[in-house]
Amino acid sequence: SSSDKDDAATTTTTPSLSNYNVVDLCAAPGGKTAQLCSYGFGHVTAVELSERRSRRLRENLQRLQLLDKCDVQVADGTTWLPPMMIVEEGQRQQPPRQPIHGVLLDVPCTATGTAGRRPDVLHKDASCLNAELLHCGGRPT
């Protein structure tokens, strides 16, 4: 009966994302980062190369009252490592305390939002940057 289907639909639960840690590379200005924060992930790390764009990212997250759910780091996404993976010279590399469960990568070279203002960005080849950013075993989806 239709009421049985309704009951089944209401008892189906979505898995909690609170145990998942995600990273947003090339994060500024922060729209996708804000979405990740609002989805309920355990922790979001936003990595942005530009200090100026990182300030804007922080401002946007603060305005949306999401800054407490996100760590903004100014770093190059092609060389960034989670804090617990950074190795001092001569020390053994340790795995991160909390694993990274996912990485959002929307490289600036895709520039779909920028194309109206700067059509030249559509002629740039992002494939080498994508390959560099995925060198650690990620896979594009």
Keywords:
141 residues, alpha/beta, 4-stranded parallel beta sheet, 4 strands
Folded structure, characterized:
It is built from four helices and four strands, in the order αβαβαββα. The chain has helices spanning 2-11, 31-39, 51-63, 127-133; strands spanning 21-25, 43-48, 70-74, 102-105. A four-stranded parallel β-sheet has the order 3-2-1-4, covered by helices on one side. α3 (51-63) links the parallel β2 and β3 (70-74). The longest helix has 13 residues, at 51-63.
Question: What spatial form do the alpha-carbon principal axes imply?
Answer: globular
Q: How do the helices and strands follow one another from N- to C-terminus? A: HEHEHEEH
Rounded mean pLDDT score: 74
For the biggest β-sheet, the strand order reads 3-2-1-4
Q: Which structural class should the secondary elements be placed in?
A: alpha/beta
Separate helix tally = 4
Radius of gyration of CA atoms, rounded to a whole number: 18 Å
Count of distinct strands: 4
Helix content: 25-40%
Residue stretches low in confidence (pLDDT < 50, at least 5 long) are: 125-131
Note the main sheet. Answer: 4 strands, parallel
What can be said about this structure in brief?
By secondary structure, the protein is α/β, with parallel strands linked by helices.
Which helices and strands occur, and which strands form pairs?
Elements: H1 2-11, E1 21-25, H2 31-39, E2 43-48, H3 51-63, E3 70-74, E4 102-105, H4 127-133
Parallel strand pairs: 1-2, 1-4, 2-3
